[in-house]
Amino acid sequence: MTGTAGGPVKGPLSVTPRPRPRDAASIMLLDRSQAHVRVLVGKRNKAHVFMPDLHVFPGGRRDSSDSRLVWDGDIHPAVLERLKNCHGQRASETRLRAIALAALRELHEEAGIAIGRKDVGNTTLPFLPDLTNLRYMARAITPPGHPRRFDTHFFALFTDEAGVEPTDIRDSRELEDLRWIDVDDVSDVRMPDITEIILGDLRASLKSDASLPFGRPVPFYYTRHGRFVRDLL
User: Fold this and answer.
1) pTM score, two decimals?
2) Listed residue (42, 48, 60) closest to 170, CA to CA
3) Which residues pair with 223 in a beta bridge?
4) Residue 139 belongs to what domain range?
């Protein structure tokens, strides 16, 4: 995880502010080498404040340092355009690219998977992130009432396109019990509701076009006046 003011009044002069959503990114790493497409998930440690003991896609919040990461392959123009549609055409490309970079950094930190060519001289990451094959799949903002809130952008990436060997995954302090699950059968794991919803969108997208075109419409989930909303961006 690892990716919309006010609050309950405790007294006449005391108001508890609601946390502001922070940029975050999550990645659905897809293995299509078998009869059914599989996606990588891991269980968040029980000590986590946010979504403990639940299986999620690798991901986390965007760090300020992500905008300074040196990268190799750039983000697909259609993906960048969709991100601009989300945040407005005046949004900085540096910020938008940093969201995608955060997804690859978190994948490496949480699952030991490096997307990009090795660079032992890189002081931040041991590889140069390659954003070329990332598909932008969904956006979701954590509803008010949670101790932490994120504006999470979900990306998808095929292992064969990225040169990833599915057996190379390894558990970390952030994600335990890393496993590949059939996108059509998640009965063996317990997931947050939003993860299951976005996984459902992924299934529908794969059935529509198994190549997951880069410029596809992006579902956006958020809460308005206490009501759960799904828009298309």
Assistant:
1) 0.89
2) 42
3) 228
4) 9-232
